[in-house]
## 1
Amino acid sequence: MEIAIGIMLCGCALGAGIAMIAGIGPGIGEGNAVAKACEAIGRQPESKSAVTSTLIMGCALAETTGLYALVIALLLILLAPGRFVDILVAAVK
Amino acid sequence: MPYKKAGKEFKIVDATLILMMVAPLLVAILCKVLFIPQSEGIEITGAHVYFTLNMPVSTLPISESQVNSAAVLISIFFLCLFITHGIRAKVYTKRAVIAEWAVEKVEGLVNENMGTYFAGFAPFIGAILLLSAFSSLISLVGLFAPTSDLNVVAGWAILVFMLITYYKLKCGPWYYVKGFMEPIPLMLPMNILGEVATPVSMTLRHYGNILSGTVISVLLAAALQAASNAIFGNLPGILQNFPLFRIGIPAVLSIYFDLFSGCLQAFIFAMLTMLYVSTAFPMEEYMKRKQIKEKAN
């Protein structure tokens, strides 16, 4: 029983860690966006305000996939262990 | 310019409005103090349930997020009343200028992003902006931010989803169903998935941003507490538990996570609402049908 619970908790923690690999995607995407925005401002300094507002909007949209991963990881760490252990205990009984 | 000094009654009404603006927040803080037991150390929890009501179908739990969002609603209501109090056609008070500026900004935003057909959406967008921003900013007073509860944001997203569907149905149900079969009927499941993904992504974006800020702030506070315990742990008496590092340092992160992120997410939620609703409405088809109908009459 203890071993089963241990494996379960280990799986939850590992899953949370693996889920956060998704953080790579938004990181690269936002980096690209900021690089392009810097280029655009360098070329046309007078368009700074428009570029900045569009950039912030786009960055917030690009963040979404990372946030999905974050929500999944938080669920796996905070919520899932209790649920799974309850299910396991009920099944053994 | 005719500037009259404010009378006594005017001032009394003003004071009452300000009091009513602050009172809901105080009530929410009082609820928190009364109902939530003092916890040892730092912990990450969801919204606490204050009490449950017995309703006919099932029990209705009244949680922290419900109480706090109601407090925000009442607070915003009285803020609006306060700002428009004693407003005249000719603008000569400070608050009238502020009110006019806010209304003009929101109307400009709506006209720019949705077109003049949707000009009536300005109050709705303004309400979403204010409610979302203030719900996130309420965490500055030490209360639980309603936007870091999935249910609250999901409610708003479902409201937006209903609006989207309403405007998609404007050209009749057949046109709506046909929209799912584009470009080929084989894409039907993908299109339905994409339709459902809209409210889900809106919810998770807003909720995830605010929640991640809360979680990171709590983790940082815990880490700083551990650091100050490790350094000052050997000192005698009360100095032992003095959280020196927790003074000031978390506030720097709070500027980003509470102030900037909260306002930015409110803006993005409103922006996406505008974009989704205005792109959902098949303007050309609707106008064509309207013209045909008028000709028939």
## 2
Amino acid sequence: MQPFTKLTAIAAPLYRANINTDIITPMQYLVGTPRESMGGIAFAPWRFNEDGSENPDFVLNQEPFREAEILIAGPNFACGSSRESAVWALQGLGIRAVIAPGFGGIFANNCYQSGILPVVLPEDVVAGFARQAEAAPHTARFTVDLENCRVIPPQGEPVPFEADALRRSALLQGLDDLGMTKTRVTEIAAFQEADRERRPWIYPGS
Amino acid sequence: MGKSLFDKVWDQHVVAELGDGAVLLHLDRVMLHDLSGYRALKILEERGERVVHPELALGAPDHTALSAPGAQTAGEPYGRVGPEFMELCKRHGIRAEGVDSPGFGILHVIGPEKGLTLPGATLVCGDSHTCTHGGLGALAYGIGSSELVHVLSTQTIIQKKPMRMRIRFNGAPAKGVTPKDMILYVIGQEGTAAGTGYAVEYAGDAIEQMGVEGRMTICNLSIEMGAKIGMVAPDDITIDFLKGREHAPKGADWDAAVAHWRTLKSDADAQFDREIEVDVSEIKPQVTWGTSPEHVVAIDGVVPDPDDAPDPDAREARLAALDYIGLQPGQSMEGVPVDWVFIGSCTNSRITDLRAAAEIVKGRNVAGSLTAWAVPGSAAVKAQAEAEGLDRVFTDAGFEWRAASCSLCVGANGETLAPGQRSISTSNRNFVGRQGPGARTHLASPVMAAAAAVTGAITDVRKLME
């Protein structure tokens, strides 16, 4: 997994509330689609017209936002279905960080498995970022700095954000959860041994 | 300080504290389906990992199986993933219920049905509606495929402890008001993100009087208000439900389990980060008008005016929803004609749902050219319904009596509406494109769906109840 330390990049404004993961990766394209191809179906209902051509009105079809590596999204971004394809689709588009007032809880956990950073900031701050990106697209280079836990917008002061110590350290090192837990197999075995005594009915055949 | 139900179950599963409120949590059960579970097993193999406790896992290809009786594997989506998913489960020693098995069904229906879902157990599945299992007092939630790989190869997950919310449903529901209406009402009041970051406990006398299946319906929709976890404290109703089920504990284990389950309730002085009180007597049958479960009104209500939205963003969202759904502000919900009726999904496909819907359908006929499907949540539910003659009630009226599958809830099996068609559906999401590109979905209870089937339009079911 690619470590996430500090990223300076174009940020695309997609400030709408409650964008769900069905929109990010619609079911009709999903079954059996390889993880590596998910970028091609990202936001399909908005990104493409019915005939398959690009919708020029959609922000991610516009310059310079095609090259965006940061997404500025609205409240409750990526709510709904647990499908991890939503993360892989953003990754396929080249997105490495999403700034929003809030995220669907399952999506946020999925982000950490692929090295994508979800940044939570207050609504007025994120809305302000979106306005900056819209007003001056070509100079809308934001810095998301996980080392110092701050976002530096093109204009204005750096804004600090909170990151869980565990998640931050894993992203900085490029570790997903499995890498961290593999060091704890003896603790898990000890838990299960004691738990089999406490709750034998949980373990078939014990 | 006392502990909540959630805290008790959580604390009993902490393997290690990881700092900052995060823990390594032990998982007692893991469920795999043909989309996320299939992907997880593929990733697991790519990474050279192995399934450490296959005996704690259950698989079923519920998403891509067709609901066509006798032809459930015939669809193209099933062909792409179903057989390989079954093979992957077999290779890793995981019990998987194929479509031909009498144990087949939607995972969130068959887990409880088999007695695999137990009070106080932790359970995950690569599916956001895993919260359904909380209806039995399990701590259950949806995760992604990578997290599933973690669970399969370590039997644990890294999870930050959520905040606690309690929703008390006080009083008794009026005629025609079901658990689905109760939870849709709350989502309408609180919004689709109100539960984000919380584990929700449902309590109050309406919950205490409710059967396990109704509790599962309520817990199922927790994720539609943002909460990954919904739970109801186990009680005599839960214990009666589980007793004698295939995989429920037996003998001395049963007695020990029951004694343990009786300790799983919130202490009188348990602290919650948020408490919501709901007067159930005020709730009427609900129906959604838009493209989010929070876009919901009582059946005698009208489509809200976007200009009345609390802020400009909400106004934009409502305008977009109305454009998609094809309704006008101020329009009555009652009388909106529908093309499709879908009774099914992990929300409302259990025997009590089918009985309630059949009660409305009995002696009436499906209206006009409307297509009405009844899709039982499992092969066992289907068999039970047939033993009770419910299949005949539905088919005599003009319904199609289908086989167990997620079916029209999510369209993963290719079963979808045509663009522009309108359905009333007992499922859980009215999102844009959820039932197929351009499809328009109105969420409601099984009896409301049944009422629309026999009248041809969204109808106040209370008018059909004698």
